[in-house]
Amino acid sequence: MSQSTSRDGKSDIKGVFSTQEIRKVGTGTTTRKTVQKTFWFVEQKGDEIECQPLNPNYVPSGPKRKITMEELIAKFSPEPEFYQMSVYPRMKDLNQTISSADSHREKGENFAAEYEYSRALKVDEENVRANLGIGITYMERGELEKAENIFERLVKLESAFESEHKHLFNEFGINLRKNKMLKQAVEYYKKAIELSENDENLRANLARALLEAKDIDGCLEQLFKALELAPAHPVSLKFLDWMERKSLIPDEKIEQARVYLAGYSDGKDADAQ
User: Fold this and answer.
1) Residue 113 class from Cβ within 10 Å (0-12 exposed, 13-18 middle, 19+ buried)?
2) How many domains does the chain have?
3) How many of the other CB atoms lie within 10 Å of CB of 126?
4) Could you tell me the sign of the dihedral formed by the alpha carbons of 161, 164, 167, 168, in that order?
5) What is the mean pLDDT of residues 62-77?
6) pTM for this one?
7) Is residue 122 exposed (0-12), middle (13-18) or buried (19+ Cβ within 10 Å)?
């Protein structure tokens, strides 16, 4: 276990802990008790403490859950030597492998990137960065069937839509749309919105995918919701203005659209003067 000092002078917790659970095995006279030990990576972020199970390769993997300090003290035992000798080196190697893969991908070296991402996924098949990265790599190479397999894995991982992965998450969604994987792009953004309903950028991205899928009503619904959340959202206003100029807005919705665009039109007029 390690500790780092935060801005307020308090020490944050970061390391491996274990829990034990006593289970009964067998029946009748053959019944016996066994102790099952589970290892967790525990990290404190401000006032929140998260724990994540270790996989058989000794790296944190799978869903995280929040625990209280009282629960940590009562149910978890620190494993500092195990963390320093086994878990931390594996985590460091995994992050270096993914960073190398990211670097190859950014340089357009897609086969080298795929090799490194694949190495990372053998250690942690649920690693979000590695899944997003290899999915983008497949789409950039036009290997859409492989990309579809990655997509199906990602939409099951809630952690794929967390803010720490925002840049890769957005790039993956844009690539789905550009590769005409419109059904997947729509499902992808809908999943993200389930976890972050008040994100106007996600709704604008979903609107774009719905427009390309020729779902005008669905597109406008998302744009209107984006502008309810952020009336001055420039991407949504520009998008809606473009749709009006292209006569893509049905008559029954044009009045509502113009209400949202009123301020945007004023802004354009002011810029022109």
Assistant:
1) buried
2) 3
3) 18
4) negative
5) 94
6) 0.82
7) exposed
